[in-house]
Amino acid sequence: MRRNLIAGLRAWPRFALLIVVLLTFSGCAGRLNKAARSYYSGQPQDALAILNKGDNLGQRNELLFLMEQGVVLHQLGQYRDSAQKLLAAAELIAQFDMISVSEQAGSLVTTEWLTRYKGEYSERLWVHTYLMMDFLLLGDYDSALVEAKRALQVLDRHRDSLKEAYFTRALIALCFANVGEDNGAFLEYRRLAEDLSDPTPVALDLVRYASRLGMPDQVEKYQPYIMTEPSAAEAELVLFVANGRIPAKQPGNVILPPSIRFSFPYYRAGSTPLYPLQVLPPGTAQLPVVSTDMTRVAKAALEERKVQIIVRETARAAAKEAISQSVGRNQGQVAEVALRIGLLLLEEPDVRHWQTLPGRLALLRIPLRPGTHYLRLKFAGARPQNMEEYLDLPPFEIRNGQRLFKSIRF
Fold it and tell me: Alpha-carbon distance 167 to 47, whole Å?
């Protein structure tokens, strides 16, 4: 019995070391959490300073730091720096097809926290979404189109789970339109119309491009859905409106005797409402809003990945059980119990996620005549008790034929 006890005690340092490593990784996650708290308390500069310290443990959270930096820099109006961070994130994602065998082996018996965070399918799409916004705001329309095409590749790979990413899809069509690629714009608007419950938000664009491309049947099909009469305005203001925050992933666990623990991440129920957006002064024309409930898309993307999670958790549980039984046969019951306790403690679901994402993204287009404009945006019901809030846009001048982009978050 004493020999078994000594063997059990000898087994503990290895798992104690793993627990220390896990706690250290949690410290890096803590830095990400701290940056998010600063960001949502209205201190984006402080959030950026925290994020700029990086991940001292190497590459495991590298993607998260890059994505968080990208959004914070976007919020600060530093669109070029934001694009640089997000381009690095996109490059990193492209490398993740080459998965480290040793990394996977480590997570097979311990925890997903030991592996590099590779981003949910939805987060991979939103990297390109923010890149499109950054480049449009910088006036680099060719680069925006490149990102639109890269976003389309992500959408094509995960069409079902990402189809409700309406904001991104409308932005893709706009990127085609912005460089005069009428056919590409029409195709993307038509695909979007087919997935929307009501094609009204894109009907005017479809009729315009169908007319230019000589498609009278498509003009006839979408004409009845036009709610806003075609404007004689010769310019357009495009607002990227973000509000709320995406929910945190939650840890889920199922424990089976004697010491099998299945862990998995999930999102709690809920969504960010689409608050009415009205442009003032009264009478200012605006096209119907196209928006994405980020929570719904994130949930759908995680649901698509559920099969992979189940397969991986099953393999990990089988590997741990085999190792525990082997230790029990070779070193005794005490050593086996010590091992089972250590492995049980190490089994933690990976709830890392992109925290600075908004809960909803909306695309608001405002036809305007050339000249200087003083506009105010009214948010109805954006706060408790349905209080109305107003945001005065800085005065701006828009030229004939210009499409001007601005980004706001509330």
Answer: 26
User: Distance (Å, rounded) from C-alpha 143 to C-alpha 139?
Assistant: 9
* Residues in Cβ contact with 289 at an 8 Å cutoff, skipping those fewer than 6 apart: 201, 274, 277, 362, 363, 364
Predicted confidence (pLDDT) per residue in 177-199, tens digit: 999 999 999 999 999 999 998 99
Report the alpha-carbon distance of residue 210 to residue 135 in Å, rounded.
27
| Least confident range of 6-10, 57-61, 170-174, 379-383 | 6-10
Report the amino acid identity of residue 38.
Answer: S
- Alpha-carbon gap, residue 55 to 61, rounded angstroms: 6
Mean pLDDT of the chain: 83
Highest mean pLDDT among 200-209, 231-240, 309-318: 200-209
Classify strands 235-243 and 403-409 as parallel, antiparallel or unpaired.
parallel
What is the rounded distance in angstroms from the CA atom of residue 86 to the CA atom of residue 137? 15
What is the Cα–Cα distance from 404 to 29, expressed in whole angstroms? 38
pLDDT for 343 equals 53
Residue 205, classified by CB atoms within 10 Å of its CB into exposed (0-12), middle (13-18) or buried (19+), is: buried
CA dihedral 26, 32, 33, 35 (to 10 degrees): 150
Question: How far apart, in whole angstroms, are the C-alpha atoms of residue 293 and residue 338?
Answer: 46
User: Which of 26, 17, 11 has its CA nearest to residue 112?
Assistant: 26
pTM of the predicted model as reported, rounded to 2 decimal places: 0.84
Question: What is the average pLDDT across 203-224?
Answer: 96
